[in-house]
């Protein structure tokens, strides 16, 4: 089973990185004893448990932030090495910031730098070993799909890339009475002369995906029950896709899914705590980025003239359909919508040169911190859409209005999982991820999304 993006293979990476941090910590202190024999307590004394926690936690948070725990990361070892060095820099900055805020005895001069240098070497070596051993195979399961029709074809449509199937080997499809269109795939249809139960056991199948188009009277319930008793996992195809991709198959769910899976958000204490958390994060981000705000304003003025506006506001749809004004740095030409509302797209000629840079690194979104503090938005949630487009999407996309059950956000699950989109099809794809977030939203998931958003900003994946 998975907890969002956590599974066996990246759990191994997390544990390995902690072991690297522990070894580096012990090695660094032993080396330091030569120069700081009187100033540095020996490794294992109580003083170092706090130091070890700060060192390892900042290192692993930074590693998560640059995407190195993403098993679907498509990068060469050179790309991984670059991310490791960025993570080391982030961890060093975070630990330095913590030492300024918390009255904890810091390391002697240059010892902290030595530890992070050794950590960089240790992580480079451990990731090289991990990549050479193809560690993702640790999590692979042998699965078959019970069904070979339209519903079973969701695996092909939702998980087209090889990177989408790193957690399982699809052995084949088992045809079932009532299947509509036969699935077209290079994966074979399973036709066997022995019983399905014997086939499952003989071929060491670990999971059966229920993908039949018509279940009533067509599923071999006795066989499924027997396999379940033997330890084979039985999973509905909608749950399987949700688990493996972090999205909901919108076109194949029914109203009961919404009734049983969308949580109520009427808890007054919870909403207040969420607002306090969002205000706290906004204050920290504003404290860290205020120089960027000034630079952005200056660049916009230099490009378009000092009489040109720096900010712009736009109507967006928030929680429960309430319309509010969103604030952003202006990234398009003045009067970009003089001919009416237009959806922005990737190669939009209305975007200025400075605006393209601001969008790439999400700097144009920083004025929305005001919206977060005001309570119109959260830090994490579905991106707010314009009323004109909401009306269009609501009439064309099933369950689109469900994304308004929560506050919109500066960043979200869809922004992590899906690239920039500018069409109806893209809106459908993003809704799949938004519904996953709405179903699973929690404080820990919000923290995970916030940390992983750093990868989008640091490597310029915004639009």
From TrEMBL:
Residues 276-458 form the Bacterial sugar transferase domain. Gene3D superfamilies: NAD(P)-binding Rossmann-like Domain. It is a multi-pass membrane protein. Keywords: Membrane, Transferase, Transmembrane, Transmembrane helix. It is found in: Membrane. The chain crosses the membrane at residues 12-36, 48-68, 80-101, 107-125, 275-300. It comes from the Bacteria. Its main location: membrane. Belongs to the bacterial sugar transferase family. This is TIGR03013 family PEP-CTERM/XrtA system glycosyltransferase.
């Amino acid at each position: 089973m998975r907890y969002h993006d956590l599974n066996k293979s990246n759990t191994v990476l997390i544990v390995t990185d902690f072991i690297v941090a522990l070894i580096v910590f012990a090695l660094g202190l032993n080396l330091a004893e030569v120069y700081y024999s009187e100033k540095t307590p020996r490794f294992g004394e109580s003083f170092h448990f706090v130091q070890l926690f700060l060192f390892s936690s900042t290192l692993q948070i930074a590693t998560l932030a640059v995407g190195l725990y993403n098993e679907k990361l498509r990068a060469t070892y050179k790309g991984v090495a670059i991310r490791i060095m960025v993570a080391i820099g982030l961890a060093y900055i975070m630990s330095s910031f913590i030492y300024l805020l918390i009255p904890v005895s810091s390391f002697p001069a240059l010892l902290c730098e030595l530890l992070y240098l050794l950590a960089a070497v240790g992580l480079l070596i451990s990731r090289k070993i991990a990549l050479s051993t193809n560690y993702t195979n640790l999590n692979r399961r042998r699965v078959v799909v019970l069904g070979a029709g339209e519903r079973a074809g969701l695996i092909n449509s939702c998980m087209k890339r090889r990177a989408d199937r790193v957690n399982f080997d699809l052995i084949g499809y088992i045809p079932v009475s009532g299947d509509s269109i036969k699935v077209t795939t290079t994966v074979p249809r399973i036709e066997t002369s022995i019983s399905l139960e014997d086939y499952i056991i003989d071929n060491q199948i670990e999971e059966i995906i229920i993908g039949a188009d018509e279940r009533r009277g067509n599923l071999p319930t006795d066989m499924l029950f027997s396999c379940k008793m033997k330890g084979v996992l039985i999973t509905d195809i909608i749950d399987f896709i949700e688990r493996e991709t972090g999205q909901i198959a919108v076109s194949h769910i029914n109203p009961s899914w919404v009734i049983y899976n969308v949580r109520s958000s009427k808890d007054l204490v919870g909403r207040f705590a969420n607002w306090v958390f969002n205000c706290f994060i906004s204050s920290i981000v504003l404290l860290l980025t205020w120089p960027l705000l000034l630079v952005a304003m200056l660049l916009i003025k230099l490009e378009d003239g000092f009489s040109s506006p720096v900010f712009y506001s736009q109507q967006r749809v928030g929680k429960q359909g309430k319309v509010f004004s969103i604030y952003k740095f202006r990234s398009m030409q003045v009067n970009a919508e003089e001919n009416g509302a237009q959806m922005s797209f990737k190669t939009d000629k209305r975007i200025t040169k400075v605006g393209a840079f601001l969008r790439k690194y999400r700097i144009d979104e920083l004025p929305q911190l005001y919206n977060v503090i005001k309570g119109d938005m959260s830090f994490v949630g579905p991106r707010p859409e314009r009323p004109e487009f909401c009306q269009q999407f609501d009439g064309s996309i099933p369950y689109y209005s469900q994304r308004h059950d929560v506050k919109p956000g500066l960043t979200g699950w869809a922004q992590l999982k899906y690239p920039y989109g500018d069409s109806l099809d893209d809106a459908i794809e993003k809704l799949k991820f938004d519904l996953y977030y709405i179903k699973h939203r929690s404080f820990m998931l919000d923290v995970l999304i916030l940390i992983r958003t750093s990868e989008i900003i640091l490597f310029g994946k915004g639009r």
